[in-house]
Amino acid sequence: MDKLIIEGGARLKGEVNISGSKNASLPIMAAALLSDEPCVIKNVPDLRDMHLMLKILRALGAEAEFDKGKVTICAKKLKSYTAPYNLVSKMRASFCVLGPLVGRLKKARVSLPGGCIIGVRPVDLHLKGLQRLNVAVSVSGGYVNASVKDLKGGSIYLGGEFGSSVLATANVMMAAVLAKGKTLIENAACEPEVADLANFLNKMGAKITGQGSPNIEIEGVRSLGGAEHKVIPDRIEAGTFIMASIITRGSIVIKGAVYQHLSVLIDKLEEAGVTVEKNDGYIYTKSSRNKFKPVNITTLPYPGFPTDMQAQFMSLMSVTPGVSVVTEKIYPDRFMHVAELNRMGAHIQKEGPHAIISGVKALSGAPVMASDLRASAALVLAGLVAKGRTEISRIYHLDRGYELIEAKLQKLGARIWREKE
Ligand code: EPZ
Question: Which of 65, 191, 293, 361 counts the most CB atoms within 10 A of its CB?
């Protein structure tokens, strides 16, 4: 296994290009199962999770190639409707092949994703949505079995106790595009990645409106053709680099991100006394000597503060004088990074879904362990500003969501490199 070594203290300067969105690419690749014609998906980041999804698509019988960010998928001859446990258990997001398999083959057998380090990952909303489309759903032996004679549109309220669900909205949308009649999804996820999926489906011939809002309408069609699509930029990667620049008191230019996808982060950073500017397609942070102010955040479905940026924000608050509170409303257990940040000298106390952070003057480098994708990013940010050397082990978590992160950070002047563990 690899580990990342960081010598803290460098102020980041320069330009960084944001990669395509991991969380838009995954359901869009699954959506290619809905057509027997080839689909070309561009700006796909070269990440482990992408290659895992391609493996699943090939196991189902699709041809699937990855060539320098361009993915070509042809699901003309599907030979299976089963997504096996050994693949789904490696990446929970592969559960989003359920909807397209039901849409295309009218049957599917997909392993339950199981829980992970950030919490239990229930799928009740996915199953409820499919049942509202007249799909018979049963769970046995750790698998979801779904089958339907005639897929019928219906009205579905898809909100759960934690609000809307990104991949449940994706699964239901991908089943409904080939259903007879109209489907209305209420309390749908509004994330830009869901809207990007809907835009790709519409290029394939689907009739979806309302994407990006809580009410999505889908007029079923008989079949879908192939399509070409460029995936939106990764807003979580962009937010991570903005915070890397701020925590190191640097000034970087972020190229290729969508400013509007980052509104809540930029609003919170401005509350902390940091200016984030934008100018024809660029976002840039100006280094400032002013003291940051402590800021409270609560994670919510989009356009609220994203849970995928909570850990990184916590690193920033760890070195901000004063007391701030991070409340995690999407995954209440998503605090694995707290213990590791405290090993680096942070003062963070966990109280249920809250983390109370008392800012310290400086963090000190230490050997720490990555636990989930975004917690790993938080440890990188902490390492960039800590005094001394930080060694982050188990960084395969990081490689799932950040393309070439150490190369991009090195280019910005960070003293960071990878070693074999
Ligand atoms: C997506 O996961 C993202 N993954 C996650 O990013 C992200 O953290 C999450 O959305 C929330 O924004 C991908 O897009 C591949 P949810 P998803 O269904 O769709 C509960 C990362 O780091 N829920 O929106 O699986 C659930 O437990 C990953 O890139 C139900 O109760 O998340 C959670 O509390 C981590 N029943 C909340 O809803 C369900 O049927 C939101 O989960 C489904 C979800």
Answer: 191
